[in-house]
Amino acid sequence: MTDPSTKRSERRAKNRLEAFSDGVFAIAITLLVLEIAVPDVDGTKLLSELLHERQTFLAYFVAFMTIGAVWIEHSALVDALDHIDATFMRLNLILLLFVGILPYPTGLMAEYRYDVQGERVAVVFFGVVLLMQTVMLFVLARHAEREGLFGTDVVDERLEESRVRYQLAPSLIMYAVATVLGLVLPYVGLILFLLIAVYLAIPLHTVRRLLRRSA
Amino acid sequence: MTDPSTKRSERRAKNRLEAFSDGVFAIAITLLVLEIAVPDVDGTKLLSELLHERQTFLAYFVAFMTIGAVWIEHSALVDALDHIDATFMRLNLILLLFVGILPYPTGLMAEYRYDVQGERVAVVFFGVVLLMQTVMLFVLARHAEREGLFGTDVVDERLEESRVRYQLAPSLIMYAVATVLGLVLPYVGLILFLLIAVYLAIPLHTVRRLLRRSA
Amino acid sequence: MTDPSTKRSERRAKNRLEAFSDGVFAIAITLLVLEIAVPDVDGTKLLSELLHERQTFLAYFVAFMTIGAVWIEHSALVDALDHIDATFMRLNLILLLFVGILPYPTGLMAEYRYDVQGERVAVVFFGVVLLMQTVMLFVLARHAEREGLFGTDVVDERLEESRVRYQLAPSLIMYAVATVLGLVLPYVGLILFLLIAVYLAIPLHTVRRLLRRSA
Amino acid sequence: MTDPSTKRSERRAKNRLEAFSDGVFAIAITLLVLEIAVPDVDGTKLLSELLHERQTFLAYFVAFMTIGAVWIEHSALVDALDHIDATFMRLNLILLLFVGILPYPTGLMAEYRYDVQGERVAVVFFGVVLLMQTVMLFVLARHAEREGLFGTDVVDERLEESRVRYQLAPSLIMYAVATVLGLVLPYVGLILFLLIAVYLAIPLHTVRRLLRRSA
User: Fold this and answer.
1) C23·D26 Cβ contact <8 A
2) Chain D, 69-88: which have a CB under 8 Å from a chain A CB?
3) Is pLDDT of A25 > 90?
4) H helical segments located in chain A
5) Which residue of chain C is at minimal alpha-carbon distance from B121?
6) What is the pLDDT of residues D48-72, one digit of tens each?
7) Looking at chain B, which subunits does it touch, using at least 3 CB pairs closer than 8 Å as the criterion?
C-alpha cells in the first residue's frame, strides 16, 4: 500500500486533483456573470435600471467572494497534504458538486429579488449550498487527518489539522445562523453571507497591522 | 522513434494532454448547471416548483457524478502511462467529444421530465453517450497496452492493464443494460445511471473498512 | 537579453502561455455544446426532430474536431520551442481570438441549417475563422524560426520548422478551397471542413499500419 | 514566518494562484463570445445584418484584447515574484472579480449599440471595470514591493517594481480619460479602449524593429 511507486502515483494524483478542482472553482466563479441578465429597457432608463438591480450585483459579489474564500481554504488544505487516496478524490468530487451548483441559487436570488417569498427560498437554497461546501471541507480535513495524508513538512500534523478545524468551525456555525435568519428575513441573510465572505476573504492580521501603522 | 529527445517530448505531450483533458472535464461538469432553468413562477410557489423539479436535480446529479467517475478513471489510466503517442492524443479527443456533449442530453432530460415519450429519447441519448465514453476509455487502455505506453514503474504492466480492463468491463455492461431498460422505462434507466455513477464513485474497499469499524 | 535569469523567466512564461492556451482551447471546445438548442417539441416527435437536426450535430462535430486538431498543432509547435518572447505571446493571443470566436459561426450554421442563403454566409464565416487560425499558426511558426525560439533538443531546428510549415501549408490551401466552395455550395463546404478535420485528426501512419496488419 | 517549510508552501501557493487565475482569465475571455447574439433574420439578410452589427464585433474585440493585455501584465507581475502571502491571494481575488464581470458590460455595449443613451452607460460601465482592473494590478504590485515578495533572481527588485509601475501608470491615466470621454461621446470612448488594448498588446520594440527592417 505504501511502497514508493504507489506514493509517487498518489502524489501525481494530488497534482491532477488540484488542476481539476482549480478548473471547477475558476469556471463556477466565472459562470456567475451569466446569471446577471442584460436589462432590456430604453437607453435613457438603463442607468436607473442598473442602480435598481443592485441586489443582483450584491448576489454576484457574495457568490464570487464565497467561492473565492472556499477556494483559498481548499488550497490551504490540499497544500498541507503529502498525498491523497481514492476516498479523498471522491469526497472532493462531492465538494465540487456544491461549488458547481452555486450559480443556480445565485440566479434564483437575482430572479426573485423583488419577491420576498421567492427571495426567502432562494436565500435558504444559497445558504444550504454554502453550508454543504463548508461541511465537505470539514469532512475532507477529517478524512485526511484519520488516514495520515498530511505531509511531514507540516511541522506538527495535529496542529495543522486543528488549525483547519478551528478555521472551518466558525464559518459552519455562521452559515447555519445566516441560513436560518434568511428563512425569516431573506435580505438580512444575504447581508450575513456577505459579511462571512468578507471575514473569510480578509486576512485579519493584515488589517490589524494596517490599523497599527495608521495609528 | 524511441530516442531520448522524442521520449522527453512525448512525456511533455502527456502533461499537456492531462491539462487539456482536465480542462474539458472541469468545464463540462460545471456547464451542467446551466441546463437547470431558473423557474419563472410566483414567489409563493417557488418552493413547491423546485421540489416538483426534483427530476431535473436528479439528472444534474447523475450527469455530475458520471463525468466525475469518468474523470477518475481517465486520471488513473493516464497516470499509469509513461508517455503517449499521436494516436492516443486523437483517441483521447474522441473521448472528450462524448464528455463535452453530455450537457446536451442532460438538458433534454430536464426539458422532457414530464413527457414519458420525450424522456425515453433523452434517457437513451444520455445512455449512448455514457456507453461511448466507457468504450473510448476501453479503446484508450487497449491502445496503450498494445503500443507499450504503460510506465515501467507500474510493477506489472499486464497486471495494470487487466485491472483497467476489469474495472471498465462491468460499467460497459451496466451502461448497455441501463440504456436498453431506459428505452422501455425511462425513469428506471435514470435510476440505474445513478446507481452506476455511485458504484463507480464510491471506493468499495473504503465502505468495507467503515462497515468493519462500526461493527 | 539572453542572460540566464531572462531565459528562466521566458521558460516560465512558456508554461503559463501553455496553461492559458489550453484553457481557452478547452473552454471553446466545450462551449460548442451550448450552441445546440434543446428542441421544444412534443415528446413523440423528439426523436424525428433530433434526426432532422443532424446538420446541427454535424456542425458541432466539425467544430469540435477542428478545435481539437488546431490544439494538437499548437501543442506540437509550442512543445518544440525552448522559450518564448513578448511578440510570441501577443501573436498567440490573436490565434486564441479566432479559437474563442468559433462557437459563434457554429451557432450561425445551426440556426440557418434550413436556409441556403443564410447557410452560405455561416459556412463562409466559419471557413474564414478556420483559415485565420491556420494563418496564425503559420505566423507563430515563422516568428519562432526567425527569432530562434526553437529548442536545441530538437535535433535539427530547420527540419522541425519545415515540418510544421509542411503540415500547415496543405490545411491552409484546403481551408481556402473549402471556404470558396462553401460560398457556392454551403453543404459541400461543410463536408469539406469535416474531411479536413478528420485528415488533421487521424494520424496517417497509424492508419497505414492498421491497413498493413489487417492485410 | 520565513522558515523553509513556510517558504515552500508559499511557492506552491503561487503555483495554484497562477493556475486559478489563468483559469479565470481563460474562461472570461472565452465566455465573451456568448454575448454576441446569433441574429434571427431571413437568410438573405444575414450578411447585411452581420455587417450592421460590426459594433458588437468591435466590442468583442476590445474586450478580448483588454483581458488578454491584463493577463500578460498579470503574468509578468506574478512571474517576478518569489512567493506570495495571504493578502496577495485576497487582493488577486478582487482583480479576478473585475476580470470575471467584464462579459457583462460587453453584453451591455452589444445590446445598446443603436441607443446612444444606453451606449453611454454601457461604455462608462466598461471603462470603470477596466480602470478597476488596472488599479488592482497596481495595488498588487505595490503590495508585493512593500512585503518583499519579489524574487532575488530579479536583478534589481526596485527596478523591476518601478518598471511595473511605469507600465501601469499610463494605462491608468488612459482608461480614466477614455471613460470620461465615453460619458460624452460613447463611440469615441470605445475606440479609445481599442487603441489602449492595441497599445498594451503590441510590443513596441518589435514594431520599431520591423519598421527599421522594411526601411
Assistant:
1) yes
2) 86-87
3) yes
4) 4-31, 46-52, 54-79, 86-100, 103-111, 116-146, 157-184, 186-201, 204-214
5) C47
6) 888 888 888 888 998 998 899 889 8
7) A, C
Angstrom distance (rounded) from CA C9 to CA D82: 12
Q: Is the pLDDT of residue A103 over 90?
A: yes
Residues of chain B positioned with their CB less than 8 A from the CB of A116? 43
Is residue C200 classed as helix, strand or coil in its secondary structure? helix
Can you state the percent helix, strand and coil of chain C, rounding each to 5? Answer: 85, 0, 15
Residue D205: helix, strand or coil by DSSP?
helix
C8 touches chain D (CB under 8 A): yes
The CA R_g of chain B, rounded to the nearest whole Å, is 20
C106 is written with which cell numbers? 457554429
Q: Best residue in D92, D104, D128, D187 to probe A by mutation, most A CBs within 10 Å?
A: D104
Q: By CA distance, what is D30's nearest residue in C?
A: C100
Q: Tell me the C-alpha distance between B108 and B119, whole Å.
A: 8
Q: Looking at the DSSP assignment, which residues form a beta bridge with residue D81?
A: D150
pLDDT of residue D99: 95
Mean pLDDT of B170-179: 86
Using a CB–CB cutoff of 8 Å, tell me whether B53 touches chain C: no
How close does chain D come to A102, measured CA to CA in Å?
16
Q: Does C5 touch chain D (CB under 8 A)?
A: yes
Residue with the larger pLDDT of the pair A80 and B26: B26
Q: Does the beta-carbon distance from C47 to B89 stay under 8 Å?
A: no
Grade residue B52 by pLDDT with cuts at 50, 70 and 90: confident
| Among chain C residues, CA nearest to B110 | C38
Could you list the residue range(s) of the whole structural domain that residue C121 is in?
4-214
- Per-residue pLDDT, A72: 86
Of chain A, the percentage scoring pLDDT greater than 70 comes to 80
**Residues D61, C97 contacting (CB under 8 angstroms):** yes
Residues in a beta bridge with C150: C81
* Element holding D7 (H helix, E strand): helix D4-31
Residue of A nearest to B71 (CA): A20
pTM of this prediction? 0.88
- pLDDT band at residue D2 using 50, 70 and 90 as cut-offs: very low
**ipTM of the modeled complex:** 0.84
Distance, in angstroms, between D71 CA and closest chain A CA?
15
Please give the tally of structural domains in chain C.
1
**If you search the block for the grid coordinates 437607453, which residue do you land on?**
A43
What chain D residue is nearest to C106 in terms of C-alpha separation?
A: D38
Distance (Å, whole) CA D50 – CA C188: 23
Going by pLDDT thresholds of 50, 70 and 90, the confidence category of residue B198 is confident
Largest CA distance in chain B: 70
Chain-chain contact of B79 with A19 (C-beta, under 8 angstroms)? no
CB-CB: which of B9, B34, B117 is closest to C46? B117
Going by C-alpha positions, the residue among A77, A76, A96 that lies closest to residue A25 is A96
Compute, in degrees rounded to 10, the torsion defined by CA atoms D37, D42, D48, D53: -20
Q: Note whether D36 contacts A: Cβ–Cβ < 8 A.
A: no
Residues of chain C with pLDDT under 70: 1-9, 152-168, 201-215
Distance from the A101 Cα atom to the nearest Cα atom in chain D, whole angstroms: 17
- D19 → chain A, closest CA residue: A22
3-state secondary structure chain B: CCCHHHHHHHHHHHHHHHHHHHHHHHHHHHHHHHHCCCCCCCHHHHHHHHHHCHHHHHHHHHHHHHHHHHHHHHHHHHHCECCCCHHHHHHHHHHHHHHHCCHHHHHHHHHCCCCHHHHHHHHHHHHHHHHHHHHHHHHHHHHHHHCCCECCCCCCHHHHHHHHHHHHHHHHHHHHHHHHHHHHCHHHHHHHHHHHHHHHHCCHHHHHHHHHHHC
Nearest chain A Cα distance for residue D160, angstroms? 25
Q: In angstroms, what separates the C-alpha of D208 from chain A's closest C-alpha?
A: 38
